[in-house]
């Protein structure tokens, strides 16, 4: 099977380039080959590669910057996945895509399921939701994995920022009233590969039964403050972490207060997901 993988320089894309090796022949492209803001180029690359499967972790992920660049965020996060879905339909290919907990407003202190009402609070979340809808509307075999608070040992992420700051400072002030589940990029990639192995074995009937949205987050929940404490402890650093509120740390984009998602559907159908702290320890070791 020929697999076209986008965003191979990103946190999840980098891990997918490794974990998809067992799934098929992977053609990994970065923005130099396929710039998602150039929809003609997206079409041309797909038509020339002719994949049986497109896996799209590439996205406009700068949540605060998206507030001042909504057109670009929508082109990359909504229009480009829509074009991928159209092209996949012409080729008879399947599409795997990634979305976010930020499609929810986070007003309810309970874990959100796939069928719960969406109401994004910021441009990034709204653009990702529009991408989900464009893919679903195409009526192709697809999987949309909504994930949250992604970190890993490469790329730009909260874990690496906190490790750097904890080495530079004696004290950090971190938001303690936003709740979520930090998810290791490798967990996302390895879970994707496991699900795709099952899809490969199940053929067309599998896609008919299983196409749709799945929440793919580490189990359990925490806050940015507690996550930082766990990172510092695991790294053996000594830095005081003070809890602050969201109001103490204003950002251009509004963020959900409670963005925990239930991944029960994915776990019931496909495979287990680790607890956030266990995955953090594995990642850092
Ligand atoms: N990061 C999170 O906390 C988080 C949370 C929830 C959901 N997600 C979703 O999970 C998926 C993977 O995210 P991630 O954390 O791996 O993101 P990431 O590390 O920020 O990587 C994003 C990737 O997209 C590429 N990209 C951005 N603009 C592009 C363009 N115009 N054309 C082609 N490629 C472009 C980047 O390329 P460059 O390296 O060239 O910039 C990079 O490879 C995304 O769908 C994201 O929305 C992420």
From TrEMBL:
Swiss-Prot/TrEMBL catalytic activity = dTDP-beta-L-rhamnose + NADP(+) = dTDP-4-dehydro-beta-L-rhamnose + NADPH + H(+)
Q: In which pathway does it act?
A: Carbohydrate biosynthesis; dTDP-L-rhamnose biosynthesis
List the Pfam families hit by this protein, alphabetically.
RmlD_sub_bind
Q: Which residues form the RmlD-like substrate binding domain?
A: 1-284
Cofactor section: Mg(2+)
Please indicate if the UniProt record lists Lyase as a keyword: no
The first-level EC class reads oxidoreductase
Q: Which InterPro entries match?
A: dTDP_dehydrorham_reduct (IPR005913), NAD(P)-bd_dom_sf (IPR036291), RmlD-like-bd (IPR029903)
How does the cofactor bind to this protein, according to its record? Binds 1 Mg(2+) ion per monomer.
Query: Is the Glycoprotein keyword given for this protein?
Result: no
State the EC number(s).
1.1.1.133
Q: Name one GO molecular function term.
A: dTDP-4-dehydrorhamnose reductase activity
Keywords for this protein: NADP, Oxidoreductase
Q: What job does this protein perform? A: Catalyzes the reduction of dTDP-6-deoxy-L-lyxo-4-hexulose to yield dTDP-L-rhamnose.
The similarity annotation says:
Belongs to the dTDP-4-dehydrorhamnose reductase family.
Task: Spell out the protein name for this chain.
Answer: dTDP-4-dehydrorhamnose reductase
Report the source organism.
Duganella levis
Name the gene behind this protein: rfbD
């Amino acid at each position: 099977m020929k697999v076209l993988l986008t965003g191979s320089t990103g946190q999840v894309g980098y891990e997918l380039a490794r974990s998809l090796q067992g799934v098929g022949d992977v053609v990994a492209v970065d923005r130099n080959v396929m710039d998602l803001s150039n929809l003609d180029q997206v079409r041309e690359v797909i038509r020339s590669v002719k994949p049986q499967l497109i896996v799209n972790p590439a996205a406009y992920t700068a949540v605060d910057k998206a507030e001042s660049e909504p057109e670009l965020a929508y082109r990359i996060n909504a229009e480009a996945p829509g074009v991928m879905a159209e092209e996949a339909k012409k080729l008879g290919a399947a599409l795997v895509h990634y979305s976010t907990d930020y499609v929810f407003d986070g007003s309810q202190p309970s874990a959100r399921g796939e069928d719960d009402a969406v109401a994004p609070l910021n441009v990034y979340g709204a653009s990702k939701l529009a991408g989900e809808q464009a893919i679903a509307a195409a009526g192709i075999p697809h999987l949309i994995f909504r994930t949250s608070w992604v970190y890993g040992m490469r790329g730009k992420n909260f874990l690496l920022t906190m490790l750097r700051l904890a080495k530079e400072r004696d004290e950090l002030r971190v938001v303690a009233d936003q709740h979520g589940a930090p998810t290791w990029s490798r967990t996302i990639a390895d879970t994707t590969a496991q699900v795709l192995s099952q899809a490969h074995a199940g053929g067309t009937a599998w896609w008919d039964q299983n196409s749709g949205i799945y929440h793919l987050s580490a189990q359990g929940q925490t806050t940015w403050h507690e996550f930082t404490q766990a990172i510092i402890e695991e790294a053996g650093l000594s830095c005081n972490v003070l809890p602050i509120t969201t109001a103490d740390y204003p950002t251009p984009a509004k963020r959900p207060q409670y963005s925990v998602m239930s991944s029960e559907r994915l776990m019931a159908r496909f495979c287990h997901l680790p607890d956030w702290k266990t995955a953090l320890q594995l990642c850092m070791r």
